[in-house]
Each structure stands twice: as C-alpha cells, then as structure tokens.
Amino acid sequence: MKVLLLLIAVAAALLMVDATTEDFVIPGTCPIVDERSLWALHGRNLWQMDGEWFHHSHTPMPYNPIVDCTRMRWQNIGGGSFRTEATGLDKARAFMRTTGLIYQSPGAPRLTIAHEKSTPAPLVILESDYQNFACLYSCQDFGGNYYGDFGFIYSRTPKLDPAFVQICKDTFAQIGLDTNTFKVTYQGDDCPHSTEKKSVA
To answer: Taking the CA of residue 169 as centre, how many other CA atoms within 13 Å lie in the half-sphere pointing to its CB?
Structure first.
C-alpha cells in the first residue's frame, strides 16, 4: 500500500512539473467566478447556444490547431449536452475540421468541453444574449499553485458589433482577465464559410 501511495504521489508530482512548464500556466489560482449564479442564469437557457458560432477573438492559446476563419457548430443533443464541430484554417492555411462534445461537468455548475486535438477543459458562459454574442471562459487549476485560463468571444456572424465586444471585455475585466491580450480571429471574405455561402448564392 505504501509503495502504491508513493507511486501515486510521484505521478502527481510529474504531472505538476509538466503542467508548470507550459507557457500558459502561471503561478496563482483561478479567479473567483460565481459559477453557481451563472449556471442558474444560463443553465436553463443552454439550448439557445445551439447553432452556428464564429470565433471573434480569444486570449493566446498554445493548443489551437484552427487559427483563422474559425466557425463552431453546437448541436443540442439534450440533457445540457452538445455535439460540436469546429472548422477553419490551420497555420499552414489548410482546411481543418475537429469534432467533440460540450456537456455539464459532473457535480459542478459549469460545462466541460472535450474536443478533438485538445484536452478536456471546464467552460463557463459568463455572458450571452444567445442571438448575437457569447463570452466564454475556461480556467484549470494545477494543485492550487498554478493555473491556466482562456477567454473567448463568440459571434453569431463573422463580424461582431463593437458594442457586444465591449460587453465581453467588461465582463472579462470583472474577473481580472487582461483584455489587451485578446487576439482577433481572421474572418475574411476568403474564409471557407464565406465561399460556401457565395457558391450557394
């Protein structure tokens, strides 16, 4: 038993060392987010997240295979869960498609996103009107000493009204996320989703 406990402790320590070498991991703990109140607000309206979303902007992400023209489809499959499909262009400007699931985290008032080519992560809807924009946040804690967090601004259309962008920035600022680090996702006329619509027209 002692040997088993020692092996578990060593494995946990190795995972911690591995995590803290990542560029996005910094000392400290995840900011306080009232997940319970946010879940009470958005949890009952999750079905309205169904449909097509475009990435407007996000904080730096080391594991982000799709970098431009990112479009995300949420397909409501009931029970607060969604099948997801992300499409866009990678760094080499090649078309890429990934799939995954978004579902309620077991025993927690938040979502989990488990997507192909990335590790599962918590996901919180900080603010959304469901028709125009959504401000999404993810934070992972590593042993209470380090954390890594990401912010995302989603739009129902390739271009988002600056007023909605500002709502998200103000919302992120309230939890201490540096909004100056947000990188706008390219959503030009030469994106696959734009050429699709032109060919249909």
So the answer is: 15
Q: Which segments within the chain are labelled E, that is strand?
A: 26-27, 51-58, 68-78, 81-89, 95-104, 111-115, 121-128, 133-142, 146-155, 183-184
What pTM did the predictor assign?
Answer: 0.84
Q: Which of 154, 152, 149 is nearest to 134 (CA)?
A: 154
Angstrom distances, CA of residue 111 to CA of 30, 36, 42, 80, 90: 16, 12, 11, 9, 26
pLDDT digits (tens, 9 = 90+) for 29-86: 999 999 999 999 999 999 999 999 999 999 988 778 899 999 999 999 999 999 999 9
